[in-house]
Amino acid sequence: MARNNGVTRNGKAFLEDRYEIRLSGSGGQGMITAGVILAEAISVGDNKNAVHTQSYGPEARGGMARCDVVVSSNEIYFPEATELDLLLALTQESVDAYTHLLKPGGVLIVDSDFVKHKPDREYIEVPFVETTREKLGATIATNVVCLGFIAQHTKIVTKKSLESVLVERFPTKFEASNLKAIKLGYDLAKLIATNGNISGQLEESLETEIDRL
Amino acid sequence: MPNKNEIKGTPAFIQGNEAVVEAALAAGCSFFGGYPITPSSEIAEGCAEKLPLVGGVYIQLEDEIASMASIIGASLAGAKSMTATSGPGFSLMQENLGFAYIAEVPCVIINVMRGGPSTGLPTKLSQSDVMQARFGTHGDYTPIVIAPSNVQEVYDLTIHAFNCSEMFNTPVVVLLDELLGHMREKIIIPDEQDIYIQNRRYPSVPPEFYKPHDITPDLVSEFVAYGEGYRHNITGLTHDEQGFPTSKPAEVQKMLKKLRRKIHAHRKEIIQYDEDFMDDALYAVISYGSSARAAMSAVRMARARGIRVGLLKLKTLWPFPGKRVHQIASEVKGIVVAEMNMGQMIREVDRYAMGQCKVKGALRYDGLVIEPDEIYEKIVELRTKK
Amino acid sequence: MKLETISPVHDYLRIHKKFPTVWCSGCGIGSVMHAIIRAIHELEINKNSVALVSGIGCSSRMPIYLDFNTLHTTHGRALPFATGIKMVRPDMKVIVVSGDGDALAIGGNHFIHACRRNIDISLILINNYIYGMTGGQVSPTTPLESYAHTAPYGNIDPSFDAVKLATAAGATYVARGTNYHIVQTSKLIKKSLEHKGFSMVEVISQCPVLYGRLNNMKLPTTMLEWQRDHGVNIKAWDKLPEEKRAGKFPIGEFLDDTSRPEYTDSYYKMSKEVREEAANGEE
What is the CATH number of the domain that holds B280? Predict the structure, then answer.
């Protein structure tokens, strides 16, 4: 697509504070649901605008799964994410497929255990799946942990709104574990912020700190 | 456009397809007959879950021909009825859609458009059924076709579709596309008392004087359901006002004229469109559905660069707001029509522009969404090229 | 003398509106219409609660002449239209009149699925072995080697047996009569109207103008005699040796099964249950 001189592609220069998030992983990791929770929390809870779109079709069952959340305090016209501000990639496949869509300075968050070939740009790695398994006993809530992490890292959504969507959308029996998962995500993000674990292997000390969470 | 936060009601964060279901229920729909097809299936699924809970009927038929037939039967039995489909199913529905036009049966058809022809692109988006919705079934008829461009409009215009259908005894087609059907946005579901609901007009005369296709002063006949003691006849043959077959030239012409005039005479109540920055516009973009969202961004891009361009967003595709388009064409230097097909609505715009200004298409038909800068480039081209 | 007083049948006709009918003299459809009216009259069903639905063809013109809630639809589609009516108004008596081409060719898919659902609709299938309205083309029931305008050298298309088809597809009342045995046919139609579930009564009828003329049976009476000689009562049919069955067909009642749930019953039972559950859940 040709770029117009002085005008960012798709006119985003004129769309104040437009923030594009892509959540990607393999089918069954709950990325689509995570996107819905995030977008609902932002738009209904925080009263900003958010649009959720997803890749759809046979290829979305099993294999790769992804969804996009576009956030703005203004009306969102063009709903698709084409220049990402944040990419969460839980698998190697999704890192390979979508990293090039990140705009300069965009945030790349990967799962340290599942992404072996590290991208040649700045990124944050977090052992989401493994930590969720260790701390919460199962990997089912990995997507919610990721949401907590993104929320703390970007401040794009308030914790209160995230929690209230989780409470309202899911049966009561999942309430406690979901809230724990959110907190775990927040804690992970705080830890990584202080330890500065950017684009490198996890420091042993960090692993110890994660253990203490 | 009113600020969403100013509308009273309950916020909901839902898909376009889910909004169709919510709106249909709010409009009083109590019958859904359908057949699964991507990308519309969430509408059937939503109806299967919710209609039994309100005492309505959900039924999955053997194909789309039967789906369309069943909603006509249900409507004649007194229910507000709906079906949902996509291109291939919409093609199968054309036969009985024609029946609903000639027999004047209210019902709503949702077509979540995908790429075609034939099986085409089941999971990708397109706006290529615009002309099929206008001319798809054989014979002369005047359809009402509606195209929302965001989830709030999906809700509001689905209710408008039911209201038009009930008001004018005619099927109404709502065109969504894959993006809109699956996209989630916050909408405000208005409180029940704030939703305007139109119901069919019950006869004011006893059975012996009742004429199901009566040509009244406002051209809209009274409608009574089966089983109410009126025992009338409904046929797909050209019929007289009583509903009995006729091939007398004068009666044939009278009936066909009525079908057209009942829509044309009321087009002001039916037609809806939004305008943005049109006051001082030297150029105009005309668009609808998902394309209109990219068009809004494109118009803002152009405005930021000092180009005086405005947007006409169509919410009713048919009847076409030809008068307004003709007027715009007389005021601007050029029009860009943005749509996701090989050029369908642009023909109609061109027809009403009548050579008063240049008309250019920003067209995309590869299954992906049209992007703002594709439209922006066409605006720039209009300005620079002679 | 006023026409209405001649026979109770006249109370059910739109005599002053749409007569005479489009049917040719000697056509069998009028007799079937008469048989249907007799059945409704004897059952004392209120005219207001009868919906008579048809598709396209000679037999499908019937609703226009009858004083019920009538619907004359598109070719082959009468059953799904009727399904819509029945689902919304399960209290109404929904009857579909169809021909062999309408029900078994273009409407074949709708036919088997209506049987499968066992929805309470009575289908009266008037089989005259030919497309009459369009001028005598071959139909899915035209016998092998018969002649039609589109089978000028004799028909090579094997035919459907509507009774077997309905039975296999799940209809719960299945019968066949003829125009010659019209009293029996009216009784079969009466039973089908009383039956709760999908019922199909095939009526072998005559089209002397097209089928008869092309197949050496120019006179309606010849065709009625053919029906008399080829329609064998089911009880006699069972005892008939195989070699004597050739060219003949059984008539009578083949299936009367009340064990299977009717579709609108199942639907409204489910709907009632989920509403009660929802109401209890809210308490």
Answer: 3.40.50.920
Residue-wise pLDDT tens digits, B228-256: 999 999 999 999 999 999 999 999 999 99
The answer to whether position A23 is within a domain reads yes
Q: Assess if residue A98 is contained within a domain.
A: yes
Domain for residue B228, yes or no?
A: no
Which chain C residues touch B if contact means CB-CB below 8 Å? 14, 17-18, 47-49, 51, 53, 63-64, 67-74, 77, 79-89, 91-92, 109-110, 113, 267, 270-271, 274-275, 278
A–B CB contacts, 8 A cutoff, strictly below: 104
CA distance A10 to chain B (A): 5
How far from chain centre, in Å, is Cα A153? 10
Question: Are B186 and A57 an interchain contact pair (Cβ–Cβ within 8 Å)?
Answer: no
The contacts of residue B252 (CB under 8 Å, 6+ apart) are B238, B246
Q: What is the domain extent for residue A42?
A: 15-212
Q: Which residues of A touch B294 (CB under 8 A)?
A: 77-78
- B279 and B164 co-located in one domain: no
Report the residue of chain B nearest A9, measured CA to CA.
B373
Instruction: State whether A10 and B296 contact (CB < 8 Å).
Output: no
The CB-side HSE value for B180 (13 A sphere, CA atoms) comes to: 31
In a domain, A168, yes or no: yes
| Total structural domains within chain A | 1
d(CA A124, CA A113): 12
For residue A209, the model assigns a pLDDT of 73
Residue A7 belongs to a domain = no
Backbone angles phi, psi at B189, to 5 degrees: -85, 115
Task: Enumerate neighbours of C (3 or more CB pairs within 8 A).
Answer: B
Evaluate whether C183 touches C33 at the Cβ level (below 8 Å): no
Q: What is the pLDDT of residue A5?
A: 34
What is the distance between the alpha carbons of residues A24 and B264, in angstroms, rounded to a whole number? 50
User: Is the minimum CB–CB distance between B373 and chain A shorter than 8 Å?
Assistant: yes
Predicted confidence pLDDT, tens digits, chain B (386 residues): 444 456 689 999 999 999 999 999 999 999 999 999 999 999 999 999 999 999 999 999 999 999 999 999 999 999 999 999 999 999 999 999 999 999 999 999 999 999 999 999 998 999 999 999 999 999 999 999 999 999 999 999 999 999 999 999 999 999 999 999 999 999 999 999 999 999 999 999 999 999 999 999 999 999 999 999 999 999 999 999 999 999 999 999 999 999 999 999 999 999 999 999 999 999 999 999 999 999 999 999 999 999 999 999 999 999 999 999 999 999 999 999 999 999 999 999 999 999 999 999 999 999 999 999 999 999 999 998 76
- The parent domain of residue B173 ranges over 4-194
Q: Using CB atoms, which residue from B11, B293, B304 is nearest to A79?
A: B293
Total structural domains in chain B?
2
CATH number at residue A201: 3.40.920.10
Are A39 and A51 in contact by the 8 Å Cβ rule? The answer is yes
Give the domain-ending residue among B194, B215, B237: B194
Q: Is residue B9 part of a domain?
A: yes
* Predicted ipTM of the assembly: 0.96
Taking the domains of chain C in order of start, what are their residue ranges?
3-258
Q: Which residues pair with C127 in a beta bridge?
A: C204
Number of C-beta neighbours around residue C229 at 10 A: 11
User: Tell me, what amino acid is at B120?
Assistant: G
Express each pLDDT in B137-170 by its tens digit: 999 999 999 999 999 999 999 999 999 999 999 9
How many C-alpha atoms does B292 have within 13 Å on its Cβ side?
25
Cα separation, B111 vs B100, in Å, equals: 16
| Domain edge (last residue) among B159, B194, B229 | B194
Task: Tell me, yes or no, whether B213 lies in a domain.
Answer: no
Q: Rounded to an integer, what distance in angstroms lies between the CA atom of residue B97 and that of residue A110? A: 52
Contact criterion met (CB < 8 Å) for B297 and A78: yes
The CATH number assigned to the domain with range C3-258 reads 3.40.50.970
